[in-house]
């Protein structure tokens, strides 16, 4: 199926002044990164005991960092460092200079807390502006922001950036799906921000309400905060008649806006004048060359309230340096297909939810509402994939349903290499997420 035909005609994105740093010649960019790294390392060393101690242990002092090429001499930082120093232990600025705090939702134990000075908020908003400009948005666009407002960085992050761009922002936050659809329709919304799984939920509900998203002015979707596949993109673009763009970010570094796709949708440009990317081997922690797949590590080059040196994101990707047809000189990462935290191991095989999603979407008529249930019976791991089927797919003939089930099982086995049990469940019987989708339920005893 040709998705281009389904898209509403999108004019090429006009150059926006906020995007200027995206096009800086490489040599000039390296020089800027080197300068900023030296400043940030000095700031971290002088103000954050954890960094001073780690650098002293390695025998590295700020004056030993001559430029960006020395970055691998610095210690790595992990999520537990942020938990262990809860709440303010990694702050490099006094509280009178901190204008905002955010925190991650802690699923286990304490959350992590992050801080911003006024200058940090401006850098963050600038990065979001560059992302929105790359998607082709500008003043005059009406942006419905369905990311959660609150401690989570998604809501306010997108909000400030979209306002700075000159767009009209509607802060709907998450939830109340019927109202979301009413706003989208009545206010002439041209862009929406939310998790891809929540947008799927909006799509379903709109269909039930008889609202055709394809006929609305909506033309851009800004989706992030969870990994999603190209197959999911194809489905969303086709069903809603929009272009669906990926946005990347994480609370520890700033929030959304660390990187974004451009009109070519072939990897995410990293705003590397502020967030420096490296790829390391997950096991040895050694830096890997461009193009190699490994764990993404990020350093904040300008963050004043809470500089983060070489943060291990747990996101698996690779960096590519070939020039993008859009002309941006900042490097791209491949879309995050999975997080090392999301991986589950079953019968010795590493499996990612995204692989199951891609397999399901390869079968005609199946929508990506699914859940993976892991159980252990008599010492043997079992994997069950529950898949919702649409009312149109339901057939009275058992043989038809059985064929569909076996087709899905074969397709998944083909991709992950192990047999799974597929259960077809009724439309709407799985939980619909308003934030990040919960794809895997592991009922195995540890
Ligand atoms: Zn590009």
Sum up the structure in keywords:
single chain, binds zinc ion, four-stranded antiparallel beta sheet, 30% helix, 446 residues
Description:
The protein has helices spanning 3-6, 26-47, 49-58, 79-84, 118-134, 153-165, 177-186, 196-208, 230-240, 353-361, 398-416; strands spanning 98-103, 113-117, 142-145, 168-170, 191-194, 220-223, 243-250, 255-261, 268-270, 275-280, 294-300, 311-317, 319-320, 332-333, 338-339, 344-346, 349-351, 370-377, 380-388, 421-425, 440-442. It has a 9-stranded mixed sheet, with helices on both faces. Residues 1-11 have low confidence and may be disordered. It is of the alpha/beta class. It starts with a helix and ends with a strand. The chain contains 11 helices and 21 strands. It binds zinc ion (ZN). Residues 262, 264, 269, 324, 326, 328 line the site of zinc ion.
Write the topology of this structure.
Elements: H1 3-6, H2 26-47, H3 49-58, H4 79-84, E1 98-103, E2 113-117, H5 118-134, E3 142-145, H6 153-165, E4 168-170, H7 177-186, E5 191-194, H8 196-208, E6 220-223, H9 230-240, E7 243-250, E8 255-261, E9 268-270, E10 275-280, E11 294-300, E12 311-317, E13 319-320, E14 332-333, E15 338-339, E16 344-346, E17 349-351, H10 353-361, E18 370-377, E19 380-388, H11 398-416, E20 421-425, E21 440-442
The chain binds zinc ion.
